[in-house]
Amino acid sequence: MTLIGHLPARYAASQKEVWVFARKLRAVKITLLCFCTKKLTDDFVRRFATLARSFPTDGGRMKLTILPLQHFSAQDRIDLQKIWPDEDISALAARLNSTHRVYAARFNDRLLAALQLEIAGTQGKIRRLNVRDVTRRRGVGGYLLEETLTQNPSVDHWWVADDGYDEQQVIAAFMQACDFRAQADGWVKNVEHD
């Protein structure tokens, strides 16, 4: 879907002009979310994030593959060490099973983001959601989170740990944009299945 088809004739623009506009809109969104989060209502943040995501940037979303990692290749280990520099990747690999999983976003055979998921019945606990610094602000983390929830339809109560990493205001805005509610030790989301 392009924005051009939705513009009145007097506002018609080229695809490149629309992408430039979308990039500027995304930059404004990030600036607002980073510096004004406490002043904005949850509803406004959610609506603005949804609107900004609907505009194409640089031709659309990066072509990412979100997948659960059953075992780690040598390259996966290198990439995971960049995502989680303080994590023992060998110990993490030993813990993987049907209830302890690692989901990752892959682009051009490299992992750009990852999270650790623990499933207990209908509850999912997400820890260590992290995106490599060079890839941030491109929708990778949101897409990873969204696809992880989609790939686990049996889970209807989600909890994301407040790991204490990065800037708390940015993380809070990100989690609100993903429809999670703040709690003392993290964020929660209940998913209703049809």
TrEMBL record:
Does the keyword ATP-binding feature in the UniProt annotation?
no
- Keywords, alphabetical: Pantothenate biosynthesis
Q: Name one GO molecular function term.
A: acyltransferase activity, transferring groups other than amino-acyl groups
Q: Where is the N-acetyltransferase domain?
A: 64-194
Give GO BP annotations, semicolon-separated.
Answer: pantothenate biosynthetic process; zymogen activation
Alphabetized InterPro entries for the sequence: Acyl_CoA_acyltransferase (IPR016181), GNAT_dom (IPR000182), PanZ (IPR032900), PanZ_GNAT (IPR040448)
What protein name applies here?
PanD regulatory factor
Species for this entry: Duffyella gerundensis
